[in-house]
UniProtKB/TrEMBL annotation:
GO cellular component: acrosomal vesicle; sperm flagellum
Annotated signal peptide: 1-19
Superkingdom assignment: Eukaryota
Lineage of source species: Eukaryota, Metazoa, Chordata, Craniata, Vertebrata
Entry keywords, A to Z: Disulfide bond, Signal
Protein name per its UniProtKB record: Lysozyme-like protein 6
Keyword match Signal: yes
InterPro entries, per the entry: Glyco_hydro_22, Lysozyme-like_dom_sf
PANTHER family to which the protein is assigned, alphabetical: LYSOZYME C (PTHR11407), LYSOZYME-LIKE PROTEIN 6 (PTHR11407:SF9)
Molecular function terms from GO: lysozyme activity
């Protein structure tokens, strides 16, 4: 549950209709403050690498997948499993709206 809250916290920083990138050091500070070191066995460096590879630190990134699902936010959380985007089939395991993970152009209910 802590992991889901962390992802929501970081992803909710996106509140405008344009790409917003967080600086690597700012993300590192935030993740350190949230004590993610060792969470699910991953280091702080692993989390930073994930954010860089998935979104290039872009908080508002939205990507459409070939299966019709979408990936949202800095960690590219998939709508098929983790959040409800009201556009594709979802299990919504985290019981959150994808809108809170990334607010980017084109996102609408």
């Amino acid at each position: 549950m802590t992991r889901a809250l962390l992802i929501c916290l970081v992803s909710c920083l996106a509140a405008t209709n344009q790409a917003i990138r967080i600086k690597r050091c700012d993300l590192a500070k935030m993740l350190h403050q949230e004590e993610v070191e060792g969470l699910e066995g991953y280091t702080l460096s692993d989390w930073l690498c994930l954010a860089y590879v998935e979104s290039n630190f872009n908080l508002t990134k939205v990507n459409e997948n070939t299966d019709g699902s979408f990936d949202y936010g800095i960690f590219q959380i998939n709508s098929h499993y983790w959040c409800n985007d009201y556009r594709s089939h979802t299990e919504n395991i985290c019981q959150v709206d994808c809108q809170g993970l990334a607010r980017a152009p084109g996102w609408e209910k």
